[in-house]
Amino acid sequence: MMTVFLLDYQDKEFTGNEATAYEMRIGKQQISIPGFTKKFSNYDTITDEYDWKLGDTFYLPGAFQRKTYKEYKIVKKRHTKEEAKQVAEKKLEQFNEKLRQKGVQIIENNVMIVTDGKKCKASGSIKVIEKIGTAKASVIVEETQEGQITDESDGENN
User: Which of 10, 59, 68 is nearest to 40 (CA)?
Assistant: First the structure.
């Protein structure tokens, strides 16, 4: 098992600037209501859709949409050695959990986490026990040997 990642990484930092746009969907046709023009270079979009309906159960073939655009900027960051170790341990635990979900039993974990000035590396071996087949119900059938006489009487001497 081995995983490697750089200590330098990029993250989103939201600026607090937002814009909202509205749309309607009628059948398969999408109609935009003018408003939002691409003002942000980097943004996330959150879409809320509200179906049209009469009463609680009768849905019409249309919907109203509100799209919220949230601006962010890319910020360069660097993991500390402690943070990098925590990230590597989390990735290792996620890997081990996937194995356990598949029914694999982990009996030995020899993974070392090493951080140098540029990257963090988790490598080593994991010993496991896993099933190689599947259990199936079976029925034991007794067969008579050739030449063997079977007693077919009802227990009375007639």
Answer: 68
- Mean pLDDT, residues 94-111: 90
Q: How far apart are CA 25 and CA 34, in angstroms?
A: 14
Instruction: Show the tokens assigned to 140.
Output: 């034991």
- Buried-state track 10-36, b at ≥16 Cβ within 10 A, e below 16: eeeeeeeeebebebebeeeeeeeeeeb
With beta carbons less than 8 A apart as the criterion, state whether 12 and 72 touch. Answer: yes
Nearest to 115 by CA among 76, 157, 79: 79
* Contact between 85 and 31 (Cβ < 8 Å): no
pLDDT computed for residue 156 by the predictor:
63
Whole-number Å distance between alpha carbons of 133 and 119: 40
Residue 155 carries which side chain, given as an amino acid letter? G
| 104 to 8, 97, 107, 142: CA distances (angstroms) | 34, 9, 10, 37
Least confident of 53-62, 79-88, 137-146: 137-146
What residue has token string 């023009």? 37
Are 7 and 84 in contact, with CB atoms under 8 Å apart? Answer: yes
Q: What is the pLDDT of residues 80-96, one digit of tens each?
A: 999 999 999 999 999 99
